[in-house]
Design goal:
heterodimer, A: alpha+beta, 18% strand, B: 37% helix
Chain lengths: 99, 306
């Protein structure tokens, strides 16, 4: 089972056309193994992207050296997924058997 | 189905069981149509809500063509129950169902959905292997014969937006294509995705405006306004290419070109705090507000025959 320990989901809002084109280039770049949850659309429209643990530092520095602001939407994706799984498991445990 | 837990996410086998139970409980209203098989051999189940008649005008709704968008399959399940509960009680829905059929495909990409539960929660595409590549699957929302292979879709099998080797190459897509064509009387087609809160109409593959743009826009405006009336959730609306981006080979571009005027696609909650891992507590609020928009679209279709 593929897990996502330490993966983070970034939110990036491109400020201008330069940043927009930079993000568009990232969409086609395999180097960082990014998974775009919300694709690049236009200036001012948020882009959400999952970044694997191994790429975190290099990706952050890629953005920072190009003066692109970002925020972290999900700090540790696996933690959120574990919580989701836990909720599903506990729902199943408490499900009433049909009479 | 009264004891089904609508407030939690469910596996594909639980959803299949729910569908069978709903049919068993409502034999005069609901039936199950199997329109085909997925690549891995799972049935492509469509719930048909009908009060009789033959080949009535119909409304199509699908959820879960992108498997990781779990709130859509969960909402689809809630819609199914809502339809049987409201028929005979809600005047608008009753009038629709007395004259039209509703088809609802809750798990449009079952292989991907199963995989998202068992192997990779972030799986979006189908599960068919690609010849000459180690990457699996096709984006079933880039696989339709509407600007197929154009900008806004990838020719790389490793991309999340890989369009596939040819239009309708995916059985999950081809089965809908065949069903829509053979039915011939579908008047509204609503394809539901998540997330980012948008309601869109064609086109995605071209900047050319659809000839019904003014009407589709006005109806979308009404739908999102009704949706917002419940919890204040704000939606953007417009054509795909204007609201999101250029995307070729998309579902509702094909349906519109088939003559289905009321072709719409949703992106449900949220604005990005949780993305595809929207907490289960959000399922029912999402479904409830979406239902208001769905009713607006269905009611307009019913009252404006063409």
């Amino acid at each position: 089972k593929e897990t996502f320990e330490g993966h983070q989901v970034f939110r990036i809002v491109p400020k201008d056309d330069v940043q927009l084109s930079l993000l568009k280039d990232l969409e086609d770049m395999f180097e960082f193994q990014l998974d775009f949850w919300k694709d690049v659309t236009g200036v001012g429209t948020p882009v959400d992207v999952r970044v694997p643990l191994d790429s975190l530092e290099s990706f952050k520095s890629h953005l920072e050296t190009r003066d692109v602001d970002y925020s972290i939407m999900i700090e540790d994706l696996q933690a959120v997924l574990d919580q989701e799984q836990e909720e599903m498991d506990s729902a199943a445990r408490f499900a009433q058997p049909r009479n | 189905t009264d004891s089904y837990d609508y407030y939690n996410y469910h596996t594909i086998s639980e959803i299949y069981r729910f569908q069978d139970m709903l049919v068993a409980e409502n034999p005069n209203l609901v039936s199950k149509v199997v329109i085909g098989q997925s690549y891995e051999g799972r049935p492509l189940n469509v719930l048909k809500f009908s009060t009789g008649g033959t080949n009535r005008r119909a409304i199509w709704i699908d959820t879960g063509i992108h498997s990781r968008e779990w709130v859509t399959q969960a909402s689809g399940t809630w819609f199914a129950k809502k339809i049987v509960t409201d028929y005979g009680r809600d005047a608008a829905l009753t009038a629709i169902l007395d004259n039209m059929d509703i088809f609802l495909e809750i798990v449009t990409n079952p292989d991907g959905f199963y995989y998202s539960h068992t192997r990779n929660r972030m799986w979006r595409k189908t599960r068919k292997p690609n010849r000459g590549s180690s990457c699996i699957g096709v984006d079933p929302n880039r696989n339709w014969d509407a600007g197929f292979g154009g900008p806004g879709a990838s020719s790389s099998p490793c991309s999340e937006t890989y369009h596939g080797p040819s239009a309708h190459s995916e059985s999950e897509v081809k089965s809908i294509v065949d069903f829509v064509k053979s039915h011939g009387n579908i008047k509204a087609f609503i394809s539901i995705h998540a997330y980012s809160q948008m309601l869109m109409y064609p086109y995605g593959y071209t900047r050319t405006a659809v000839k019904d743009q003014a009407e589709l826009h006005a109806v979308a405006q009404r739908a999102v306004s009704n949706l917002a009336s419940l919890y204040g959730t704000r939606y953007r609306y417009g054509s795909i290419i204007n609201v999101i981006y250029q995307a070729s080979g998309g579902t509702i571009d094909w349906t519109y070109n088939q003559g289905i005027k009321y072709s719409y696609t949703f992106e449900l909650r949220d604005t990005g705090r949780y993305g595809f891992v929207l907490p289960a507590s959000q399922i029912v609020p999402t479904a409830r507000e979406t239902w208001l928009a769905l009713m607006t679209l269905m009611d307009h279709t019913f009252k404006n025959p063409y």
